[in-house]
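[09:14] KT: can someone run the structure on this one? pasting the chain below
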Amino acid sequence: MFERISDWIAGLVVAAPRRLIIASLLLTAALGVFSYRIHILDDLTRVIPESSPVRQAMTRLEQTFGPSETVVIMATAPGGDIFEADFLGRLQRFTTALAAQRPFMRVQGLATLNIYERDEEGTLKPRPILDRAPASDSDVTRIRQDVLGDADISRAFVSRDRAHTAIYVDPKKHYADSEILAAIEAARADVAPFEIATTGMPVIRAATTQAIRHDMAVMIPFVVLILTAFLGWTFRTATGVILTVLIVGFAILPGAGLMGLLGIPMTAINNTFPVLILAIACAGAIHILSVYYRRLKQGFTREDAVRSVVGELTLPVLIAAMTTAVGFLSLMLSPIPPIGVLGWVVALGVVWAWFLSTFVLPAVLLLLPIPRRVVDGEHRGDWFFERLSALVTQRPRTVLLVISVGLVVVAAMGMPRLTRETRVERFFSEDTPARRDAELIDEVFRGSTPLEVIVHADVKQAAVLRQVATFARAVQDLPQVGSVDSILAILERLFEGLLGMREIPDDDFMVSQALLMYSLSTPPEQLQRFVATDEQSFRVTIRMPNLAPDELEGVLKQVRALADKHLTGLDVEMTGKALFLSELSAMVVSSAMRSVLFSLGLVFLICLITFRSLSAGLEGMAPLAVAVLGVFGTMGLLGIPLTIASALVSAIVIGVGVDYGVHVLSRWSLHHGTDLEHRVSETIAEVGRPILLNAVAVGFGLGVLSLSQFQPIQHLGMLSVLAMATSSFGALLVIPALKMLRKPQGDSQ
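[09:31] RB: done, structure tokens below
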């Protein structure tokens, strides 16, 4: 059947090359016409699906309590002590300037907080801690006593060394991140010099947008440059270089066009698709051009060389494209939507590159003159493959033993050390301002990761508040928790001024009156931050450091245990960034496992059906086992964590690495009936060069990912180079060695 298909393609190419080229290019252009509609999505919290309970709870949180994307601003006193008159004056003016900026709904800091105390008539009234610049040392002393005398205030707003203070800003909806950051800078400019650091999702999103644009501007030209230089060195002819680059360039268009047509955004995860397609989709073109130039060197005419190439390579190039596409399509099983998008976009690019390589490339070669340098030149590197063949044929057991022992050692030492990393700030390089500020604030205040506990109960019920207060105090005692913020702390300050005791009384009427008093003394949005409009639910915000996934799971387990102990009988819901990171961590692991298992299974079935041999199916998976174990073992040894991006390496290993095994098995089947040693030598001689050329080209191309501003993408680039090396040499060494060992005694085949 495949022979008839190959003959039909060859006949079509030879009969009407010009019409075939024009029709194919017009179809490619039509598919890519909507690529201009692609937009950037910089919200990393939306990498989990909309159906996720955590994401739905975060949406309900915003609907009930208003926008929750708090920006944390840390101001640093130049003298190392915030309780200095000049700094406090600047802090007050800066906070006032922030509150006046249009993008901000709420600003909470030392300059917005109140102390509640009785006046001469015995009426409880709020007194601002810092409503104006201190005019004397006594003012500074009073401010210090007000702040440090309240454990809740000092814990949330003042660092332990008293060199920093925090300001929490809640932006309004529908303001761009650039407007939010510009407003902060405008407020700072009014009191400069004033040293601040900022973090929060608007800051992270702005950095994400900038990084995506940087990556697109740098990596795509760089991978084209590397591919061009490598192909020029390989083929020594401009024809081979230009044709390969054009094919992989055109292969990007269908996926990009569909993304634009369907309104699918570009994210920090799937923005690598152009680089992946440029690097990976060149495989078919490199194989076809390598064999075509080899046939020309052997004296074939252009038409005979084209017919020979189409006849020999239609099946292996098709299977290689199918298996590569399967490897990336397996990413659609991921629960993380951007990973699924990356999977089908790259798969479509690979399939389209196969179409262009199989139909258009031979047609173009048929119309172009024969490059003289290819015909007259030496075929460099044949000595290497001769030695490789000798090694496999003479010492197959040694080859397999060395590879097996090496894999066992690397996997046994490395894989148990694998860790997960889902902290959003860790997406960026260490020198990125967004990460640097986030880690600095986290180190000082230990509160960049909020866990929201929503209590669905009447906030005016004293028994409920006392129950939740017990829970809040227990959570605050956990060593990993930075601070706990809620309406409870405000009410306790009120009752301290009213009754002289810092606790909530067991009296519904007094609680109701205290809430009324607070609502009358503060803007409505301040109360809405803690209490729902209908007063039937309220939130407790637990701030903790940006913990590693395993540590975070431990804290969440402790908080849940405390909730079960202290909040019995209450309707409680948990959400927030902490749970988002926890769910994302689980998704990263499941995504990698699903991708590996699904793609390995399909690759085995494709090889089994194509070569009609169980052993061929197993042999086709052998190089993949070498690559997968080698890559994940190396990750553990080098301390590279499993992230959203590095989880993609399994698709690259399987999707690309299987090509090499397919080409070895396909070429092996063409030499059926010859002496076994000669069969191995001919197979390696025929496919060794294009396999290694492709591995080097893809490795260099994917290595460009290490230039990304996203650290997980950098790791993906480095791991991809390792994957190409292990899978290519695995195919050239393991499969022939297995063939040699399966030789029946007394039989030369």
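[09:33] KT: thanks! Residues 744-749 have pLDDT under 50 and may be disordered.
[09:34] RB: yep, looked fine to me
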